């Protein structure tokens, strides 16, 4: 929960319920007062962090992610906010490395300190935590935001979203670190899009990510497959 300083509201009349709701929504969605807006030169991106180094590294990750996705045929003009939060994150009761809210265009990623603590419980991709791996968490969520703006179908599948996010996360790692990560997994690439299933994703998300990256790397025309995901539904087994 973000810390919110006490606010003294004084007025000469009754405050309307609508105004109170607006104020509450602002307090819930605004970053805590300890967070500072980072001077990130990437267009359309607003980034908050309570640690200057974290903010700089996250901004670098955003730039790298958008450059890669642009090279793969994505439009990268989506507007979104990133909040590097000083707490662990969870979704549906499960600890996660980041979240993207498509309704508010808002990304949350635990700051590096919290990511390191989380890695003691759940090593990411069987790797030791480092700042480069942490940057890949940012890349994963930015990929969700960009993909959201590029999908041409209503209600795209979770597995299509995660295929894109995991491919971007691994593709934007330095080559040596990516190779080290891949060597920790012996699972082959997806052989057919029917294998890119929600069941697989939910049972073993990191294995899903590795298989997705290997599928991407083996594609003769990966840009065309990305467009396939953005414009038509996967023939996957749910």
UniProtKB/TrEMBL annotation:
Judging by the UniProt lineage, the source's domain of life is Bacteria
Q: Does the keyword Transmembrane apply?
A: yes
Is this entry keyworded Membrane? yes
Q: Which InterPro entries match?
A: DUF6639
Q: What is this protein called?
A: Uncharacterized protein
What keywords appear on the UniProt entry? Membrane, Transmembrane, Transmembrane helix
What parts of the sequence cross the membrane? 7-28
